[in-house]
Design goal:
The structure is a single chain. The chain contains 12 helices and 12 strands. The protein is an alpha+beta fold and 405 residues long. Helix 7 crosses helix 10 (360-373), helix 7 crosses helix 12 (385-404) and helix 10 runs antiparallel to helix 12 (385-404). A hairpin with an 8-residue loop joins strand 10 (294-296) and strand 11. The protein folds into 2 domains: 2-192, no CATH class; 199-404, Aminoglycoside 3'-phosphotransferase, Chain: A, domain 2 (Alpha-Beta Complex), CATH 3.90.1200. The chain has a 6-stranded antiparallel β-sheet. A two-stranded antiparallel sheet has the order 1-3. Strands 9-12 form a two-stranded antiparallel ribbon. The chain has helices spanning 39-44, 48-55, 89-105, 150-158, 206-221, 236-250, 255-277, 318-327, 341-351, 360-373, 379-382, 385-404, and strands at residues 2-5, 8-9, 26-29, 114-116, 126-133, 139-148, 173-177, 186-191, 283-285, 294-296, 305-307, 314-316. The protein is globular.
């Protein structure tokens, strides 16, 4: 017999819960059982990412599996989701075939799932809305999502139990698992968040509320041991060279100015990279912090923010989250007037008793310069003229400030 983990039900004990550990339930399944579609069947459905998923296990333990597909949704909640089920028909077919097994894994608590795909959703995860019927008879609106990366599943589980009466800074998890039947497809059933993403409609306090949420995320994540070897190490020399080639090939606006700025950057690149890599990376960061990953349980324009999409959580420095959030708004500088993410995050961290280096502004400028310089290398996703112009201006300002230091 093959022993495998089936599901974790975090909202209440169930008949599958192990007596010694209510957070992990086990079941047995006959080797060779074929009540679910075969690998060849899923390949015929036109879903190569599913085949990649089946060939590997996600980033478990201390190792990180680079073959795990990155097809996950970055914004999958909505006030009025699109229920037309028009996109990604192959993934929908797989979801429909595995749905009976998902119902069984949830022990009858999960109601009918209505699949949807929101306009802003990226990636190949199937997302659906349903009702969760608790043991006491109460019903809760939930969202079903699979496949998800093991890293996202891990952090959703880790952050479920904040101190005091606070609600989790991430969605409440009703059920989850690392597989469905014999397939390594991680899945999750989480609370339905009715407001957001905040990026859909602008409000002046969006940045400050998101900063508050991610700072709380940093604080709670600090309870878990950090493996600094997993901190991201970019090849900035290669990225800058790619930017130069792209500028010359695409003849983007202000080509000569761009090339001059990159020459100036490359002269100081060794010292900047050395300074950046010497940062304190002994903390967990969100890794993909922007307003499309910020939701609310209360209202779009008030209340605590709930963070979604934890697939990029990794060791790093809080400046990385702050500058990433800021960078997404560089092309809309008026939206940064009320709240500057780096300064606001530093102040929020100090208020919470978290560490803030005296030289954090210099570190932020190094990160700004490095990130701004790479935009021309990614013309497909970052090649909008307005954004390129904003990156060029940020690179100029950051280099000027660093030169003054």
């Amino acid at each position: 017999m093959w022993v495998r983990p089936v599901a974790i039900i975090t909202s209440m004990p169930t008949r599958r819960a192990a007596a010694s550990d209510s957070r992990l339930a086990w079941d047995t399944w006959p080797r060779g059982h074929r009540s679910v579609p075969s690998r060849s069947t899923t390949s015929k459905l036109g879903m190569p990412f599913i085949s990649r998923t089946l060939r590997c296990r996600a980033d478990r333990g201390n190792s990180e599996t680079r073959t795990m597909p990155t097809c996950y949704a970055q914004g999958c909640h909505a006030e009025r989701p699109d229920m037309r089920n028009e996109s990604n028909s192959g993934n929908r077919q797989l979801a429909d075939m595995l749905l009976p097994h998902l119902y069984r894994a949830c022990n009858g608590h999960l109601g009918d799932v209505n699949w949807f795909r929101a306009d802003w959703q990226r990636g190949g995860a199937a997302t659906g809305r349903a009702t969760w019927r608790a043991s006491d008879g109460s019903e809760h609106d939930v969202m079903v999502k699979f496949p998800i990366r093991a890293r996202e599943l891990l952090w959703m589980r880790r952050l479920q139990h904040p101190q005091g009466d606070l609600k989790p800074v991430v969605p409440h998890v009703y059920a989850s698992g690392s597989s469905l039947e014999s397939y390594d497809l991680a899945w999750i059933v989480i609370e339905w968040l009715p407001y957001g993403p905040l990026g859909k409609r602008w409000h002046a306090d969006h940045v400050s509320r998101t900063v508050e949420a991610v700072t709380r995320f940093h604080e709670e994540a600090d309870a878990f041991v950090v493996d600094q070897e997993k901190a991201r190490v970019e090849d900035w020399n290669a990225l800058c060279e790619n930017s130069v080639r792209s500028i010359k090939r695409n003849h983007i606006a202000e080509e000569a100015r761009w090339l001059g700025l990159l020459d100036r950057l490359q002269e100081n690149l060794p010292s900047m990279v050395e300074r950046w890599r010497s940062r304190d990376a002994d903390h967990w960061i969100h890794g993909d912090l922007h307003l499309a990953n910020a939701m609310s349980r209360v209202a779009a324009e008030s209340g605590e923010v709930t963070l979604i999409d934890l697939a990029e959580v990794r060791p790093g420095h809080w400046i990385e989250d702050a500058v990433f959030l800021e960078r997404r708004l560089w092309a809309r500088p008026e939206r940064l007037e009320a709240t500057r993410p780096v300064k606001a995050m530093a102040e929020t961290r100090i208020a919470r008793g978290l560490s803030v280096q005296k030289t954090y502004e210099t570190l932020a400028d190094i990160r700004r310069a490095l990130m701004a310089s790479t935009a021309p290398a990614f013309m497909k996703t970052e090649g909008h003229p307005k954004f390129l112009s904003a990156c060029r201006n940020q690179l100029t300002s950051a280099l000027d400030r660093l030169q003054e230091d």
